[in-house]
Amino acid sequence: MPRDGFPWRVRILEWWRSGAVKGFRVRRLVWSLVVLAIYPPRAPRGEQFTWADLIFWGTVSLEAALIFFGVDHRARRMAGSALAAWGMLCGLNLCLGMPRDLVGSLVWPMLGWITSVMQERDVPLSVCYVVICALDLAVVQPTWPGSVGYLSGYALLYVGIRGTLLRRSEHQRLLAAHSILRRDAREMAELAAEAERLRIARDMHDGVGHQLTALVIQLQVLQARARTLDERALFEDAVQSAQNALRDLRDAVHRMGARGGAGEDWLRDLTVTFSKRTAVSCSFETIGALSSVRPDVWMVWYRVLQELLANAVRHGRATAIQVIIRMEGSLATLQVTDNGSLRDLRGVHEGFGLASVRARVAALQGQMWLAIAPGDGLCVTVTIPIHEQEGSK
Question: Which stretches make up the Histidine kinase domain (predicted)?
Fold first, then answer.
């Protein structure tokens, strides 16, 4: 088992699934095999296997490995190292006497890989793309008509792959937005049901509860005015029955109106389920009385916690997460801290999910802060006013 706590088989399965669909991985595998099938037979063969052959095979193998393996969220981070290693191998190929046109042809798979790992606005890799194209022209030294063909090929490769990836990225964003909207719709339905349940509880308390209280008082007055023991016993039984009914009603209203416990259970269950599913150590702690926290606050916190737990593992590679909910005066606070790899807030990219969370917190007149946790990792604090919000309604 690796030191981050994940079994190797889980990491391999995660890597396979990171391409979204297996067809994507199959296409990458096919392109890698095509590279391995085309380039080695083109190398000049001598009677013995030389260092030049070894370096050439190493260059081709590196390109095939990058095409197949280097396509997940870590690929962009290793692009600089991969380009440096590839450039060094190409230089060695030229120094060891490999034909210039053969070494120049190795540029095409690498250009395709560079384009496939670019971010939406990636100036450094775009500059690298142009520099590699210029160096390829300098090495191959084609004729003027050939140069036009090369330039056209560079442009078509860039536009074709970039266009496909940008369309796929936009499609993924739309799918994510649709998923979030559906989840928000479910949460709004739950919130509406919770609000209706609380309204019914208030109506029962204010209507039926007050009527039963008045009935008990009236029966007690009649009991005091009873003339015979039988009448008093009868009124006493009636008073007892009315008091029992009133007590049962109050118990039912209390159960229906118990807001804090249900919301706390939602978040605790979410944390426990996430920990079991991902093998990430998660702790959950509450401080102070949470009974005054409204259902809409619990709903927002639930959405916030969902997003932060997922981001801590997906982007921060966290292995431990701490969740704290506390009530301080009129402020309800949710704090989520992880031990991920984040060291600088400049590395935080607020996508659609986090932006939606911030908007929902702001709708309740709340605030959300991001900070670097002690050591490494991210600490997110969400504070929402309780009593002020109630008074403003």
Answer: 303-388
- SS3 at position 333: strand
Which residue's structure tokens are 């706590």?
Answer: 5
State both tokens at 321.
């997460």
Write the pLDDT tens digit of every residue in 97-118: 888 888 888 899 999 999 988 8
Distance CA 373, CA 338 (A): 7
**CA-CA-CA-CA torsion sign (155, 159, 161, 162):** positive
- How close are the terminal C-alpha atoms of the chain, in Å? 54
What residues contact 173, with CB distance under 8 A and at least 6 apart? 352
* C-beta pairs of 163-172 under 8 Å, 24+ apart in sequence: 165/115, 165/116, 165/118, 166/120, 169/120, 172/20
Neighbours of 180 (CB within 10 A): 17
Q: What is the DSSP letter of 220?
A: H
Look at the block and give the residue holding tokens 């000049």.
44
Confidence (pTM): 0.47
